[in-house]
């Protein structure tokens, strides 16, 4: 690697994104561009998601600058050696590590002359994403869900976990009535319930025939016993998200059978290298995975989509983040046609440039 540079990207969302953990009005991220000796550029990004990864913009930039000293001069095709250097002495900083990991994978695949999904295994070249309904008043959420379904999305991710459990049940009932039986509903409580509240809410929704596909992270991240209790007490599939960052977390969840599904995010895993490890661990245990994201641009989503497309054990996709932005700061990369996503046949991520009007040099 010849050069590693950073850019700060800031793009307002179309409307505020609300969950049980936070409200986001503007997408902020640090973009990483690694240039090799022949002028090829690899791209990555790291959004500061303080409520989940504990990172802020300044810390991400500082970590990447420190790590850059280890990576400069390394050969991208010696990928494992470069990634091992990146992990050395790194505690936390999962999104910052992910940004560098993405860019290194992008460059390695470019040097190999392959799209990244083929470089990683080449299982498929398309994905179909869900679309998120932010937590709000029940009537507002029902209308939002109906509008999204009418635009062609057949799987909705419903944010709950903010306020009384009875209100969450009302929210989901209203959404099911608004969209009808042909739309899948995934709930995401973002750690907003206790185990008892989760069992009560999910059981009530099952009894009401609301037909949930899954419920994501119903309890606090470190409450593995509570997560396992919920998983064993309800018929609906339970997915771990904030409970699983790296392979060690995945090992604990899988050993306990604390969840039916795992949500892998590059920003939690520290990049593609550990994401592949988690996915294969889950596959060995008969546990399917979803790949999701934070509030990211098409840099991170393109990298996540290439990883997801390369793995047969990834059966669900949550990649709507770029659709929530008021503008697109990325040229090239994954292409959307409604809910369907198509990976570029170009080598690497297929990202060709970043648009200057949305970023500042760091």
Automatic annotation (TrEMBL):
Active site feature: 159, 265
Domain of life: Bacteria
SMART domains (alphabetical): MR_MLE (SM00922)
Gene3D superfamilies reported for this sequence: Enolase-like C-terminal domain (3.20.20.120), Enolase-like, N-terminal domain (3.30.390.10)
Binding residues for substrate: 22, 132, 157, 293, 295, 318, 320
Domain Mandelate racemase/muconate lactonizing enzyme C-terminal: 138-237
EC number(s) given by UniProt: 5.1.1.-
GO molecular function: magnesium ion binding; racemase and epimerase activity, acting on amino acids and derivatives
Cofactor(s) for this UniProt protein: Mg(2+)
GO BP field: peptide metabolic process
Cofactor binding summary note: Binds 1 Mg(2+) ion per subunit.
Family of the protein in this entry: Belongs to the mandelate racemase/muconate lactonizing enzyme family.
Protein's name according to its UniProt entry: Dipeptide epimerase
């Amino acid at each position: 690697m010849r050069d590693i540079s950073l850019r700060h990207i800031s793009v307002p969302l179309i409307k505020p994104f609300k969950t049980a953990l936070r409200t986001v009005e503007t997408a902020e991220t640090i973009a990483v561009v690694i240039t090799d000796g022949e002028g090829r550029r690899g791209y990555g990004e790291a959004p500061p998601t303080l409520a989940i990864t504990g990172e802020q913009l300044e810390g991400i930039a500082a970590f990447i600058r420190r790590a850059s000293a280890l990576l400069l001069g390394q050969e991208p095709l010696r990928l494992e050696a470069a990634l091992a250097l990146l992990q050395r002495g790194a505690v936390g900083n999962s999104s910052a590590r992910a940004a560098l990991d993405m860019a290194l994978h992008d460059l390695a695949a470019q040097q190999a002359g392959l799209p990244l999904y083929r470089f990683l295994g080449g299982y498929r070249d398309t994905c179909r994403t869900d679309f998120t309904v932010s937590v709000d008043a029940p009537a507002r959420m029902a209308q939002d869900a109906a509008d999204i379904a009418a635009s062609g999305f057949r799987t909705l991710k419903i944010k709950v976990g903010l306020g009384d459990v009875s209100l969450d049940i009302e929210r989901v009932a209203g959404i099911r009535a608004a969209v009808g039986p042909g739309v899948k509903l995934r709930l995401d409580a973002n750690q907003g319930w206790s185990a008892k509240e989760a069992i009560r809410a999910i059981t009530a929704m099952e009894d009401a025939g609301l037909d949930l596909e899954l419920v994501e992270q119903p309890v606090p991240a470190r409450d593995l016993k509570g997560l396992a209790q919920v998983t064993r007490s309800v018929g609906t599939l339970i997915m771990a998200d904030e409970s699983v960052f790296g392979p060690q977390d995945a090992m604990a969840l899988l050993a306990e059978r604390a969840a039916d599904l795992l949500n892998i995010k590059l920003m939690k895993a520290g990049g593609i290298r550990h994401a592949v490890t988690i996915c294969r661990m889950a596959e060995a245990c008969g546990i399917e995975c979803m790949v999701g994201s934070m509030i990211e641009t098409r840099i991170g989503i393109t990298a996540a989509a290439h990883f997801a497309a390369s793995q047969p054990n990834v059966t669900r996709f949550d990649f709507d983040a770029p659709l929530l932005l008021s503008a697109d700061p990325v040229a090239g990369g994954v292409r959307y046609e409604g809910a369907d996503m198509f990976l570029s046949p170009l080598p690497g991520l297929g990202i060709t440039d970043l648009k200057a009007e949305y970023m500042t040099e760091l």
